[in-house]
What does this fold into?
Amino acid sequence: MTWMLDPNALAALLTLTALEIVLGIDNLIFIAITADKLPKHQQALARNIGLSLALIMRLGLLASIAWIVGLKATVFEFYGKGFSWRDIILIGGGLFLLYKGTVEIHELIEGHEPEEKSVGAIAQTSFAKAIASILLLDIVFSLDSVITAVGMADDIWVMSTAVIIAVIVMLVANGPVSRFVNKHPTVKMLALSFLILIGMVLVADGFGFHVPKGFVYVAIAFSIGVEALNMMARRKGRGH
It folds into this structure.
């Protein structure tokens, strides 16, 4: 634990923690939207399970750094482009986000009729599907998070501490973020659009077209700023 006395290690910890929190936003948004499909009494449980799985996966991947490095090795080639397991996971996760975001937007706009099943059966199936969806995307987001951590820090304790702090922040914020996103339809639509954007970035990255994360998060921050102005304008309009 001598790294705690090293100014460079502490600086790396603060920087990496902030970055891990930012990278966790998309994970948090996906969990919030997925959990909202469940009955009220199951939503908090699903969110907590999802974030707990995210923490376990991140720490497990950090403990297998050699395996993580091995994921970048080429598995097969297609038309001269080599694909690694990392590429395959990113492409699969990105396609799933594109599918999930598109389906959710369609349901939000068009609405949908519930299947003719008992309430208990629907709740049970929905909970299982929700956890499975969260688990799948946790794998993708965790891989992205850990690869970032490995690239920014040398000490496993620095990386692990940053990941733990980031997930704790997500656990604290998951309730308020979920309520806010699902309370405002336009914000929920914006969040789903973010998922589609992130899905496209993951697929592009998997095919070797790297999009700097800074550009993505600046675009997201700009969109959030515009939506905040819209919300203030609507609130002011109702006040008159």
About this structure: The two ends are 60 Å apart (CA to CA). The chain has one domain: 2-211. Residues 2-211 form one domain.
